[in-house]
Amino acid sequence: ESKGKKRNPLHDFKKTGELMLIKVNKTLEVKTKLLNTTEQCAKRCSRNKGLSFTCKAFAYDRVTKRCHWLSFNSLTNGVRKKQDHAFDLYEKKDYVRNCIIGKGADYKGTISVTKSGIQCQAWNSMIPHEH
């Protein structure tokens, strides 16, 4: 049924309109480039193509058609949000999602305690439970 149809790269991103992220921590990285569509920005972010960092989000300037790939997202320490009518923010769902899907092997969110408040076991640890 979906033969011949390409998957939209924006599907992996959560969009927040009229928002830009400002890095307070100077070690966080940003790369920009002129691109015509948000789909092109999303595809590059997902593949980390031409980036020296793992892309966690991008902001698209609708006025200048410039993509800003970010090594951080709205949950990263050293980042502040700024209302800006020219920008739309797209954050990778994997990094802002607070739930585990399936077995959680690809989980990259920030939750590290159970519903009852118990610290989660590290993935590389066999204590207190074996996998």
Automatic annotation (TrEMBL):
Give residue ranges for domain Apple: 5-94
| Domain of life where this protein originates | Eukaryota
Keywords of the record, alphabetical order, are: Disulfide bond, Kringle
Q: Which PROSITE patterns match?
A: KRINGLE_2, PAN
Please tell me one Gene Ontology term that the record gives under cellular component. extracellular space
The GO molecular function terms of this record are: endopeptidase activity; signaling receptor binding
**What are the Kringle domain coordinates in residue numbering?**
98-131
PANTHER family, alphabetized: KRINGLE DOMAIN-CONTAINING PROTEIN, PLASMINOGEN-RELATED
Q: What is this protein called?
A: HGF factor
- Per the UniProt entry, what species is this protein from, by scientific name? Dasyornis broadbenti (rufous bristle-bird)
Organism taxonomic ancestry = Eukaryota, Metazoa, Chordata, Craniata, Vertebrata
Name of the encoding gene: Hgf
